[in-house]
Amino acid sequence: MALHGGDIYRNKVEIDFSVNGNPLGVPQSVREALLRAVGQCSAYPDMETAALKEAVARMLAVPKEYLLFGNGASELFMAVVHGIRPKKTVIPAPSFYGYEYAARAAESEIRYCGLNRENGFHVTKDLCDNLTEDVDLLFLANPNNPTGCLLDCETGLHILRHCKEMGIYVVLDECFVDFCAGNPSLLSETENNDRLLVVRSFTKSFSIPGVRLGYLVCKNEPLLARIAGQLPEWNLSCFAQEAGCACAKQKAFMEETERYIARERAFLEEVLKKEGFRVFPSAANFILFDTKETPCGISLYEQLLRQGILIRDCQNFRGLGRGFYRIAVKKREENIKLEQALKQAHDAGLKSDGNSFHCVSVTGSKTERIPMKEIDYVLPEEIEKRSFAIIGEELSQRNICIPEREKSIVMRVIHTSADFDYAETLCFSDGAVQTLEDLLRDGADIVTDTNMALAGINKKVLASFGGQAHCFMADEDVALMAKSKNMTRAAVSMEKAAKLEKPVVFAIGNAPTALIKLYEMTRETDWKPAFVIGVPVGFVNVEAAKELSLDTPIPYIVNRGRKGGSGIAAAICNAVLYRLREKQRRS
């Protein structure tokens, strides 16, 4: 699944609602500035960004010494964490993935603070309970993405005071604040707090994502120097600098934008509510909504993509799941086309409760019964070969591109489940496939949480590399220990597996308590699993347990959301084992 919106290059898109730009487009004076910059292409851009600093300092009424510019806000997030080097970072969830990406790049431990969907995902003063002495950095957004929630002023000031007292740096992302009515910015607090860094972007406000221009405001000059040291030389092109100078003079344009956004956002909110979706109140130029989809139906994302409309599927945001989507506020004619497309999707069978019981052809382009003449009689040895060919063809039809190294695993999981959602929800840690291959090739054991997963793993191939598969769930000593400790057998099984005197790959397809126990043991003891395959299925604690697995240094393959199962865990193991066997045969 794409980590960001705007993936028009791998999808046939007529209207892109996945990117939160300015529906009024690029101001004429900014276009003219970009054209002027063509004449500067033969010279290096100003490394000191002097003219841009002067222009933005005047716009914000701040000293130019407080400013630092980046190739978009994302570059600044990365430079900040490498400049601060936080040991522990707090990130509310859901929020922009770029915070997590930057913190992980700096090898910072991350503490996620789940926001409550019942109060519309608003940040409250309770966040301070997580801002303890061991925390070095907090990422906060005003408004938040993907929820569109503004920070209540009193709450924001309370959190900033608390962080200042605790010595915690705060990165306040205000990239979408220009779209919000009433000037809700906390930028002025930078004058009172040298640990506050406000990050903004011209990219969104002036619809120039291809130019890339973000800026940071902070009064702490030694810190700014450290952050600047993490940026490459000449990181801002002459196009970005010329465009930025023009953007800084667009007060009237942004006032018009603010009014336009408020009107069209209200229109779209009513459209979504009429379809029966839960709409989360937004102050920004985008709207988060919940369709309450269930796995049995065709997703709204797919329905709209077939009509040439791209929206942001939000199930890969921490704290959200299947059925959550975000749409940008666009021009009225485009918003009306979305309204019509939603009605067409509804008429095609996608109800607001997510239930769609139609029989769908291979391409999913229309609902129809499959005529008997299409049934073919295939010899057993040909079934798998033909199945994988169909999977590959349908992935192409869905415009889904999978990294080559992960492809065999994803395709075997789809083959096991006949569910293409796995192509978008399976998550791999950096180098996960190579790490798992190395472990199994060198004779690591596999421990499962069900006998079904144990039965599904090809133990003959595993044994050829010196490994064994285990499931301790039915062991008498596990049952007795679980009873005496008032724990689940799955949790006790993990403790028993930790005593194996060799590297262990854990393939968890059923019990979230097994993943939770592995997480606790990783944090509280010196023992570490060699690898975690986290694909339990269910409704209670499943999603949260999987998220914990992502919050450790242990290499992993995890399927986000409720889906999974013992068959999926076994399929992942077998995909790697078969790949190793094929390499062995070739050599």
Could you explain the architecture of this structure?
The chain has about 575 residues and is of the alpha/beta class. The protein has three domains: about 1-20 and about 260-315 and about 325-375, Aspartate Aminotransferase, domain 1; about 30-250, 3-Layer(aba) Sandwich (Aspartate Aminotransferase, domain 2); about 400-585, Rossmann fold (3-Layer(aba) Sandwich), CATH 3.40.50. About 40% of the residues lie in helices and about 15% in strands. The protein has 22 helices and 19 strands. Strands 2-8-7-6-5-3-4 form a seven-stranded mixed β-sheet, sandwiched between helices. The chain is globular, with a radius of gyration of 26 Å. The protein starts with 14 loop residues before the first strand and ends with a helix.
